[in-house]
């Protein structure tokens, strides 16, 4: 079933040694405690190491008694940086700015709605972890996992895909917006909603290029009527049918300049016919 997110805050955690980052979607700041506890357990279980020091900004979600007592029991040194001197925690500051810039570029390039900016941030974090860092000269993923990543699963943000959804008889055309934790699940967004689908069975339409959304232009047919000019003061003009009309079919992509040019050309053709006939008659009379 689709999952609807109502996210206001993103918790950004980064390891200072490997520059590997984690992002968590939160509705309120009160969820910071539980998300950090879960992250701490995950680190101790997967890395087999203890967190020694934690640097945070001086917000209330990190300075309350509950959070401080948890860090004290875990033996973690807590250091609060001054809000007026963010250079003390410049790594996480610049990382947050970079994540925001990448997310904006991806949404602008793909045309994805800004309603899912949170998914764009999560996808940008995944991309940064698999991009060479200028400080270390290595991939954060490589330094964190001690192995090189397999990047064959990466896809362009906003790429359309035919996704198999359980309990439905046909595939749905959704748009790729992120990755799962095991690199086998992908996140897809349903256009016009805030629904996010998780699926490992999808056919990506990478050949569609950068323009992800189908913008079907209505090629309407317009009839432009070109009337022949009227000639009433010459005897030989009687063979010209004043009611002659010609219809020209054009599309909306044609410019008005081209239409006017065609009109002038056709009117000139109509006006030349009686002159030539008059010249012939004059030559006959003179002879």
UniProtKB/TrEMBL annotation:
Alphabetical keyword list: DNA integration, DNA recombination, DNA-directed DNA polymerase, Endonuclease, Hydrolase, Magnesium, Metal-binding, Nuclease, Nucleotidyltransferase, RNA-directed DNA polymerase, Transferase
Lineage start: Eukaryota, Metazoa, Chordata, Craniata, Vertebrata
Residue span(s) of domain Integrase catalytic: 1-148
SUPFAM superfamilies attached to this UniProt entry: Ribonuclease H-like
Residue spans of biased composition, Basic and acidic residues class: 261-287
UniProt-annotated stretches for the region Disordered: 235-287
InterPro entries, per database record: Integrase_cat-core, Retrotran_Ty1/copia-like, RNaseH-like_sf, RNaseH_sf
Protein name listed in UniProt: Integrase catalytic domain-containing protein
Domain of life from the UniProt record: Eukaryota
GO process annotations (BP): DNA integration; DNA recombination
Organism of provenance: Micrurus corallinus (Brazilian coral snake)
Keyword Ubl conjugation annotated: no
A GO MF label: metal ion binding
